[in-house]
Write a structure and sequence with these properties.
The chain is an alpha/beta fold. It has two domains: 161 residues, Rossmann fold; 98 residues, Alpha-Beta Complex (UDP-galactose 4-epimerase, domain 1). The protein has eleven helices and eleven strands. The strands form three sheets. The protein has a seven-stranded parallel β-sheet, with helices on both faces. Helix 1 links the parallel strand 1 and strand 2. Helix 3 packs parallel to helix 4 and helix 7 crosses helix 11.
Length: 292
């Protein structure tokens, strides 16, 4: 494998957790980076070396300036679906490589086999990309470690019991930084065309055990209490769309009593072991103690 002649890489979803981490990884590898931003002022926090382009996935022609002269695109679809085909067509006209952040919908494990509108949407994008003949790499992170603060930090900060459904459901949380490092490597190094990677953390942990890890890192006990699916629905009403709630509850239900699906993809690509959930929590402990 060798590094390409480093035309710029365009990162969509540049201000999101993974997109931002991909930018940092590319800059560390001395790869020129462009960021697509619907509102350029939102990209003001990006490093000064990043060239910010105004563009909107729902207005395909707005991408042309950012794509002109680029070599690869990190595609995170964050918009309504209607313009997907036109955007993929434009990518194929300008660049030779696309790395798409998808989901593990093909994975033969009950957790990933529940009805999931987002998975169907991702599968459609993958088919469009495949039909173009672009060099493509599909990145499929499992459950992200960074979900933990959104789910459990409010109760932990308030010193309350963490109440959650399906505490016995097992997942293998993957660190966003590992996902980003894999994406960056496949964006700027040759040898990953037509590849498809499911990315997981190194260990299967129940949701209750993940809360125990957080307690251990913070140095105080956190009580965990099972809540019913109906209670979870009521608690999440208005904050989480119904299809997402349905998908999460079905996936967690299916994962009870099943060790999580674990791959070696992170280690195979990066040459280093994936970070553990404990490591993610230790590096982000203030997410459970400060602010909202």
């Amino acid at each position: 494998m060798h590094q390409t002649d480093s035309p710029p890489v365009l990162v969509t979803g540049a201000t999101g957790r993974i997109g931002r981490a991909v930018i940092d990884q590319l800059l560390d590898a001395n790869v020129p980076v462009r960021a697509l931003a619907r509102r350029p002022e939102a990209a003001a926090m990006l490093p000064p070396e990043v060239e910010v382009f105004a563009g909107d996935l729902t207005v395909p022609e707005s991408l042309d300036p950012a794509l002109h002269g680029a070599g690869a695109v990190f595609l995170v679809w964050t918009a309504p679906p209607r313009t997907v085909a036109a955007v993929v067509e434009r990518l194929a006209a300008h660049v030779r490589r696309v790395v798409f952040l998808s989901s593990p919908h093909q994975t033969p494990h009950p957790f990933f086999q529940q009805p999931n509108p987002m998975a169907e949407f991702h599968a459609g994008i993958e088919r469009l990309i495949a039909a173009t003949g672009l060099e493509s790499t599909i990145i499929r992170p499992g459950m992200l470690a960074s979900n933990a603060p959104a789910w459990w930090a409010p109760a932990i900060r308030a010193g309350e019991v963490v109440r959650w459904p399906y505490g016995a459901a097992e997942t293998a949380p993957v660190d966003d930084r590992d996902v980003a490092a894999v994406a960056a490597r496949t964006l700027h190094l040759d040898g990953y065309a037509s590849s498809d990677y499911v990315l997981t953390g190194p260990e299967s942990l129940t949701q209750a055990a993940q809360v125990d890890v957080i307690a251990d890192v913070l140095g105080h006990r956190i009580a965990f209490e099972e809540m019913t699916p109906d209670e979870f629905r009521r608690m999440s009403e208005g904050a989480v769309p119904s299809p997402v709630l349905d998908m999460l509850l079905a996936a967690w239900s299916a994962a009870v009593g099943q060790p999580a699906y674990i791959t070696t993809a992170v280690a195979d690509i990066l040459g280093t072991a994936p970070r553990t959930f404990r490591q993610w929590v230790a590096d982000h402990s203030t997410a459970f103690t400060e602010g909202a």
